[in-house]
Amino acid sequence: MSTERRLRLPGLAYGGDYNPEQWPEEVWAQDMALMRAAGVTMVSVGIFSWALLEPSQGVYDFSRMDKILELLHDHGIAADLATPTAAPPAWFFRAHPAALPVDRDGRTLSYGSRQTFCPSSPAYRAAALGIAGALAERYADHPAVAMWHVHNEYGCHNAECFCDTSAAAFRNWLRAKYGNDLDALNDAWGTAFWSQWYYDWAEILPPRATGADPNPTHQLDWRRFCSDELLSLFTAERDVLRRAAPAIPATTNFMVMHNFDALDYWRWAPELDVVSNDHYLRSTDPESQIDIALSGDLVRSLAGGRPWLLMEHSTGAVNWQPVNRAKTPGEMRRNALAHVAHGADGIAYFQWRAAKAGAEQWHSAMLPHAGTDSQIWQDVVQLGADLGALAEVRGSTSPARVAIVWDWNARWAMEAPSQPSGALRFQDLVRDWYAPLWKAGVAVDFVRPDAPDLDRYQLVLAPSLYLVDDAGAAGLAAFVEHGGTLAVGFHSGAVDENCHVRLGGYPGAFREILGVHGDELFPLLPGQSLTLAGQIPPGASADLWSERLRLTGAQAVATYADGPLAGVPALTRHTYGSGTAWYLATHPDPATLAAVLQRIRQEAGVRPEREVPDGIEVVRRRGTDADYLFFIDHAGHGAEIPADGIELLTGKPVTGSVTVPEGGVAVVREQVAEARGA
Q: Is the pTM of this model over 0.90?
């Protein structure tokens, strides 16, 4: 968040998407009164209102938005004013049918939902900048506008378009990347394989549907291009808004969620004045609280360690999963305060008032279909009071001594076709390693492979880093050499940035620092497992993966006890320089993985925030004069935990221990001014 363009709201922001255009005007006054009662401080407006703001090309009608912004300002509620470019109106597509997206199989998709445009369409870009410019010109000085909300969930439904316009844009992107050198592209893509050599840029197409597996580097560059193409749309709109209102910050809502992998947010985050995120629970996830924490830590890391905003989540059920479960009593509050614990300086929902029509009519809201005579409304009001009580937490950060390496390029490359195993999922593997740390109360940051400041961590984990470039590999090696502890997961370091296999044995780029050499991969079949033996818990097992390794300096901590690799190292430890490098050449069962990671972090000198009962999440946010300890009971048992200070949600002093209610939350302010020299 830049100094010049930051969100200037007191305390923690609270609100949601506000769509008054869906309701008669007489409802708006009621909305204002209820927002005040709930403690709402900011709402996002105009996200899907393009058709009403511009009923025909170049003809604008701002009368409704004028009234909405005046109402919000009169009631002390800030506006996060959106450019409505995620949902172009029907008239646009009638005039520009070539702007419709085309899928991998060559089918042109119709309008009639949202994000039904080709990201490379010149007509779409011109229209989007037109409406963004008109909004900026009219509302740049409006006292209600606290932030610009550019577009909505870029790439959610149109991350890829395979039309001829996209093909031309892809070729231009490739020309820039490879210095207009077609030989360099052929070398990077390995096009000597399967007679894929290109003699003219015009021969290059997007990776459309074909009869066999496509070129992996072609696919990887395509994913990079698609992310960059959408990023260029964001920066173009943002720049229009900045020229009109240089001091107003701009954001767009990321989607750091389990199954969304379309955009390289390491490239996106520096372009935002305020980093924000949308997060929704999966109904099938029995430990969704872990996903909340992982998402929050990743978004905070994308923000450079600074606070961020939760722009969307749900008060109850969503509408887009096969079965959309409601939240259990207390879950909404725990979810929201967990996001705050992991760095959010604002909590917002989709949406304020539950829709009675449209595709999301069964999506929960702050004001549900039942109105104020509902549990959700009571919870919304209570949460508003909670966030008010936590106002002083705003701006505090989250210290961590452990980092997990996260890379979208590695994710895209590993999950492409023709891998040794199609069962590997990047985020699943990362979460497997993250979960034991979360359960132990160990704070975690996420980093790029080539992060320049790894030395501030005691322990770096790379659960899944299939692709790594030379700079990233060298940075991790230097971290270990200078005294750090590194743990690397299987099938890492296998290929370079062009998806070329690193020859000479596995695990590729990390052979030297890990002190091992592999010559064969043995991925396991579905349902297959192996027994492990050694310095690990009795009865340890592993699934998904195994490798044939020999030691070249490392020590075997565990070996395979059965199967074709019986006696072969499965877990190794190697002293490299002043540090230590561990290799997990398989996928241990959860209990074994937790025990291994506990040993690794203890040897690295990493201790939990404090000892707490199972099911209690503990997170620290660090302020200038005080620390804030969040205790969240996900098990529903309650607990007494050692603490001293002020419990902010009740305002009561804490001496010796704090009571965490069953299924509830406690937040303790610890004064540490003297220790920091304040």
A: yes
* Domain-ending residue, one of 352, 368, 393: 393
My answer on whether 510 and 639 are in the same domain is: no
Q: Is 656 left (phi over 0), alpha (psi -120 to 50) or beta?
A: left
651: left (phi over 0), alpha (psi -120 to 50) or beta: left
pLDDT digits (tens, 9 = 90+) for 29-55: 999 999 999 999 999 999 999 999 999
The answer to whether residues 339 and 440 belong to one domain is no
The domain tally of the chain equals 3
Smallest CA-to-CA distance from 12 within 352, 396, 393, 398 is with 393
Reply yes or no on whether the pLDDT at 259 is more than 90.
no
485-489 vs 459-462, strand pairing mode: parallel
- Mean pLDDT (the chain, rounded): 96
Q: Does the structure show a pLDDT above 60 at 342?
A: yes
- What stretch of H or E contains 438? helix 426-440
Q: Which residues are designated catalytic?
A: 153, 312
Query: Tell me: the pLDDT tens digits for 431-474?
Result: 999 999 999 999 999 999 999 999 999 999 999 999 999 999 99
Phi, psi of 237 (to 5 degrees): -65, -45
Residues 529 and 541: their CA atoms lie apart, in Å, by 7
In a domain, 4, yes or no: no
What's residue 673's pLDDT?
Answer: 56
- b/e string for 552-568 if b means 16 or more Cβ within 10 A? ebbebbbbbbeeebeeb
* Residue range of the domain that includes 631: 616-676
Regarding whether 267 and 231 lie in a shared domain, the answer is yes
The DSSP 8-state label assigned to residue 115 in this structure reads: S
